[in-house]
Amino acid sequence: MISIALDGPAGAGKSTVAKGAAKALGFIYVDTGALYRTVGLKFLREGYDTNLDCHIDAILKTIEVDIKFIDGTQHVFLNGEDVSEAIRTPEASMMASAVSAKPPVRAFLLEMQRKLARENNVLMDGRDIGTVVLPNATLKFFVTASVEERATRRYKELKEKGSDVSYEEVYKDIETRDYNDSHREIAPLKPAEDSIMFDTTGNTLQESIDNLIKAIKERIN
Predict the structure, then answer these.
(1) Among 99, 127, 132, 96, which Cα is nearest to 114's?
(2) What count of other Cβ atoms lies within 10 Å of the Cβ of residue 144?
(3) What's the angle, vertex CA 188, arms to CA 136 and CA 107, rounded to 5?
(4) pLDDT per position as a tens digit, 61-117
(5) What does the DSSP assignment read for 146-160?
């Protein structure tokens, strides 16, 4: 099986670029951030904030996360409920960052991610795919873009979905998440030593997808 790891900060375009490249290559696309958002959504619904002042292991025992590919698109399920849209709020994003720093949560989701890579040709994106989840991945990319561009992209995405959010709020959320993700003790966000840097600043979505496909084909053919 061929496994391609894409890591990088929030809003760099990992998910949309990975999704487009996976479709063109005939690979399964795995958005691991959606898994953490799903766990985070459960904690939000239980009434907890990002301090996570609770018994994490006890709550994890009440969580069943599942991935299904419907018409080629990844859907995530929380205890049987399709929460693919519910996890895309700024609140779910911040909670995803909080729960991902907790070792029990990372252990809870780790084997699910590795099993997908063992059984399929995958293009998997996240924060620590190349460094922790798939350290022996066939190829590793670190996807990035300027904070300004990432904030602009996320702001437009949220507004298109009807979210009442300001650009300033989105910018601050991205800065906060960048700091939290790169400074956590467990699996901090950083490029793997053997990763290929992939900057999407200034590119259209299609340009980024085409560039990634080209980079992959040059290295696995």
Answers:
(1) 132
(2) 21
(3) 65
(4) 999 998 888 887 889 999 999 999 999 988 998 899 899 889 999 999 998 899 889
(5) -HHHHHHHHHHHHHH
Q: Angle of helix 90-100 relative to helix 167-183, nearest 10 degrees?
A: 10
Tokens matching residue 128: 């620590």
Contact 133, 126 (CB under 8 A): yes
Q: Is 189 exposed, middle or buried (0-12, 13-18, 19+ CB in 10 A)?
A: buried
Q: Can you read off the two tokens belonging to residue 102? A: 């907790």
Sequence-ordered list of residues with C-beta below 8 angstroms from that of 13, at least 6 positions apart, any chain:
143, 145, 153, 200, 205, 208
In Å, what is the CA distance from 161 to each residue of 74, 108, 111, 202, 215?
19, 30, 32, 23, 32
Do residues 15 and 31 lie in contact, with contact meaning Cβ atoms separated by under 8 Å?
Answer: yes
Distance CA 187, CA 178 (A): 13
At position 14, the amino acid (one-letter code) is: K
pTM: 0.79
d(C-alpha 135, C-alpha 129), whole Å? 7
Tell me what pLDDT residue 163 has: 87
Q: Please, are residues 159 and 165 in contact by the beta-carbon 8 Å criterion? A: yes
The token pair that represents 216 in the structure block? 């992959």
* Cβ neighbours around 172 below 10 Å, total: 12
* Average pLDDT across the chain, whole number: 92
Residue 126: name the closest of 206, 12, 23 by CA: 12
